[in-house]
């Protein structure tokens, strides 16, 4: 009896040892704050709860972003940076969590929020778009490539006429205000140009753009937008495209575009257009050379465009096509020119002949009336009376010729 009781006792204490946290209470963090530390960038900070039973080093935090866009993640730190548009405010919650043998235990939540910045509805900018472009800078410079940035937008539909918009960008820890604006018809800024920026052409961070404004009539709502560099980068076209033919053999070469990315980071498309039959051939290439067969009797136009390959960056846009270059038989162009010359000459000849004919016809009508004039005495009478009535000589002539003809006919029929 006694040993049985002992075994039972032992079993219950064992169970209590296995689950020591059954009564262990997880407390939420304290002093949770959200602080704006840059354009479209906040820092979330909290402290561990001072009343939390110590001795458990496995405490973690579960952060939940509630606005502007839902997101959640876990961290062991007590600080967290977030990048998000802030023009609609920002809200987040955090709780203490503990993973134990695959089971999650969590405290209650603590929350904080940033209020929506003030401003009248409909006054913030709309349709904000930005593109970047890489330009070569001084090769001796620390950075051989510079990135330019151009943004355009439209004034909000309810923005007063005196609204003045200001654009700022942030890349990493760099923030700059626009110095070079273009204006709409009401003299409001609607575009901005940064010839050089602190943007890293190969960077992976978000580009944050902030447009706020001022007006004497009302508060202008600010607007934030984040851009992924790969999506807005306008890649330069390939350089120095050359092509040569040898019989039916066409060989095209080019150099990589002006870009911070190295040679192996580019995909190309070659476009070969047969000007004789209108046939277009477009080929994808990953090297700087393309060889093709041609018919040897046509003239071809060639263009190449580039894009940063997915091996080096997320898929972006194609560059513009390079300048047209032509190869192949040159006979087509002189032929076309001859055709044009002949066509022009023929047209001129026809025009001159036609105008000559017209002149002759005109002479005829002028010469015609005097011939029959002396032949009929009745007609003379008519002319006399008619010129007396009508003022213009033209009507006079017409009447004469009209009257004249029946007279002739009568005369002729009477003679036969
Ligand atoms: C919370 O903030 C207050 C005031 O800043 C500070 O006195 C206190 O020490 C903080 N609590 C913890 C646990 O750090
Ligand atoms: C601005 O954007 C809206 C919606 O995104 C679109 O319907 C409109 O056509 C755009 N306006 C202009 C002028 O691009
Ligand atoms: C616009 O935003 C910039 C950067 O945050 C700030 O320095 C400036 O005071 C703001 N201007 C207005 C008119 O709100
Ligand atoms: C392209 O050609 C020009 C002139 O032929 C030359 O100066 C330039 O160095 C070439 N570009 C490259 C990248 O080699």
Describe this structure in words.
- With 416 residues, the protein is an alpha+beta fold.
- The protein folds into three domains: 17-114, Immunoglobulin-like (Sandwich); 126-232, Immunoglobulin-like (Sandwich), CATH 2.60.40; 239-328, Immunoglobulin-like (Sandwich).
- Helices cover 22% and strands 38% of the residues.
- The chain is built from five helices and 23 strands.
- Strands 3, 4, 6, 7 and 8 form a five-stranded antiparallel β-sheet that branches. A four-stranded antiparallel β-sheet has the order 9-10-14-13, with no helix packed on it. The chain has a four-stranded antiparallel β-sheet with strand order 12-11-15-16.
- α4 (377-389) packs antiparallel against α5.
- The longest helix has 36 residues, at 332-367.
- The radius of gyration is 44 Å and the shape is elongated.
- The model is unreliable at 1-20 and 373-416 (pLDDT under 50).
- Bound molecules: 2-acetamido-2-deoxy-beta-D-glucopyranose (NAG) (4 copies).
């Amino acid at each position: 009896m006694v040993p049985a009781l002992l075994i039972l006792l032992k079993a219950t204490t064992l169970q209590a040892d296995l689950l020591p946290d059954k009564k262990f209470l997880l407390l939420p963090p304290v002093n949770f704050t959200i602080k704006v530390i840059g354009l479209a960038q906040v820092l979330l900070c909290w402290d561990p709860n001072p009343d939390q039973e110590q001795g458990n080093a496995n405490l973690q935090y579960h952060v939940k972003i509630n606005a502007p866009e839902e997101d959640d993640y876990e961290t062991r730190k007590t600080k967290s940076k977030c990048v998000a548009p802030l023009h609609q405010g920002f809200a987040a919650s955090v709780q203490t969590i503990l993973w134990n043998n695959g089971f999650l235990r969590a405290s209650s939540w603590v929350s904080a929020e940033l209020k929506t910045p003030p401003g009248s509805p409909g006054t913030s900018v709309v349709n904000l778009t930005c593109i970047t472009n890489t330009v070569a800078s001084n090769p001796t410079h620390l950075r051989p490539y510079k990135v330019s940035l151009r943004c355009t937008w439209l004034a909000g539909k309810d923005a007063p006429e005196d609204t003045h918009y200001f654009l700022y960008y942030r890349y990493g820890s760099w923030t700059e205000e626009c110095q070079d604006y273009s204006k709409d018809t009401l003299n409001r800024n609607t575009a901005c140009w940064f010839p050089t920026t602190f943007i890293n052409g190969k960077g992976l961070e978000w580009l944050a753009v902030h447009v706020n404004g001022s007006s004497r009539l009302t508060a202008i709502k600010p607007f934030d937008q984040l851009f992924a560099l790969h999506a807005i980068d306008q890649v330069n076209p390939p350089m120095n495209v050359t092509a040569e033919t040898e019989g039916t053999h066409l060989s095209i070469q080019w150099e990589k575009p002006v870009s911070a990315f190295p040679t192996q980071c580019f995909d190309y498309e070659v476009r070969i257009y047969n000007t004789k039959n209108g046939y277009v051939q477009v080929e994808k290439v990953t090297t700087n050379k393309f060889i093709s067969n041609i018919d040897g009797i046509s003239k071809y136009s060639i263009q190449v465009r580039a894009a940063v390959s997915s091996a080096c960056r997320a898929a972006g846009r194609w560059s513009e096509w390079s300048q047209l270059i032509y190869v192949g038989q040159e006979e087509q162009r002189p032929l076309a020119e001859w055709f044009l010359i002949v066509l022009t000459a023929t047209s001129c000849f026809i025009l001159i002949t036609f105008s000559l004919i017209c002149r002759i016809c005109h002479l005829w009508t002028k010469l015609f009336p005097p011939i029959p004039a002396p032949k009929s005495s009745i007609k003379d009478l008519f002319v006399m009376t008619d010129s007396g009535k009508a003022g213009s000589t033209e009507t006079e002539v017409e009447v004469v010729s009209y009257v004249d003809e029946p007279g002739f006919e009568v005369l002729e029929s009477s003679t036969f």
